[in-house]
Amino acid sequence: MITIFSHVFAITGMELRRVASQFVVKASGAVLHQLLDRLLEDGVLKDEERYSIRKEMLTRASKARRLIDCVIKKGHTASKKLIDHLQKIDPVLHHELGLTSAQPGMSVRPTPFVPIVEVFSKTERRRKKNKKENEQVYPVTQTSLRNRVALLITNVKFSENLIIRRGAEKDEENMEKLLSNLGYEVVKYTNLTGKAIDEALIEFTKHPKLKQTDSVFVVIMSHGQLGKILGVDWKEDKPDEFPIDNIFKHLGSKGCPALIDKPKVIIIEACRGERGGRVLVSDSPNTADYFSPPGDLEANKFQHLPLEKDFICLFSDMPEIIFFRQNRESFIENIVNVFRTKSYQKDISQLFEEVVHSFTHTGFLGRPQMPAIIRCTLIKHFYPLTGIRYVASC
């Protein structure tokens, strides 16, 4: 019997080594987080090991590599537990890797592919019992998680003598890691003109993954004016601008049918650079006034759907110099910190509210520069990270 046990466990350890490279490529951030939690509960990982792997500065691939290397070093029992948990958390990936989950003493055979409908049968029974609750949550499936995609545009250097957006590269890096950890493939652009920003958005609406994704993030960071984002060729006598309304136009029901009924999360940092003590745009009494929603949000002729639906936008036009004078965290750093600590329990609206609330303690209370949640047309709750629990909880 000992020989059989050793043989099975040896095969398990070899299996994990065999699929290590593919695991690193294919395991999503959401799957990695769940594996870390379950392996900690099993005693396979220690607190410090989980913390080391979940470090913010690590990319998704680096986390996956550290996790699988750590588990393999712990032996066959630890390897088997990871494989078993992966089968429950992401049966599609488990099948694609060709893994097995045999019990000691049983013959080791490839795990047959089980249709997702069968894999999630327990979840479906639970969902029927909580139908009302689940109807209020945007659906997330294993397939949609694997097709998540986000657009990230960062303008740092401008041709005119505008203030350089100090720290913008770090913000871009942190935002890219956050989106990757949430399971999104990041389409990234740097230093675009206003026209190029518009073209990048239009191109994004044609991305092949949009048909199967459950959501998208669009993040744009640049200088800004009233209702506009400045392109890198902006000059006082020759404006180079991108209308923020175009984001909602291009991603709306008519501009992007693939995203109908799916949450579209917009984050805009249109910070106002300062030159010689002069702010590029004057303060508005209400940040929400920067945007006037389309005059008619009524149904149009396009499949009788609202032009603007399932959006939420977090907007900041803070003069960036404030952060450096007062040693404050940047707008993006606040977002990353909130998502890192709260995304397991809160939906996107609550997460954005946490970000806004974080500025009420930094001297901006009552100021028009405070971040604002605008043009929210979500009709359900959207959980960027924990939405998977409604689909694959075991």
TrEMBL record:
GO BP term (any one): proteolysis
All residue ranges annotated as the Caspase family p20 domain in the record: 146-275
Name under which the protein is recorded: Caspase a
Xref: InterPro entries: CARD, Caspase-like_dom_sf, DEATH-like_dom_sf, Pept_C14, Pept_C14_caspase, Pept_C14_p10, Pept_C14_p20, Pept_C14A
Pfam families per the UniProt record, alphabetical: CARD, Peptidase_C14
Native species: Poecilia formosa
Domain Caspase family p10, residue spans: 301-386
Active site: H223, C271
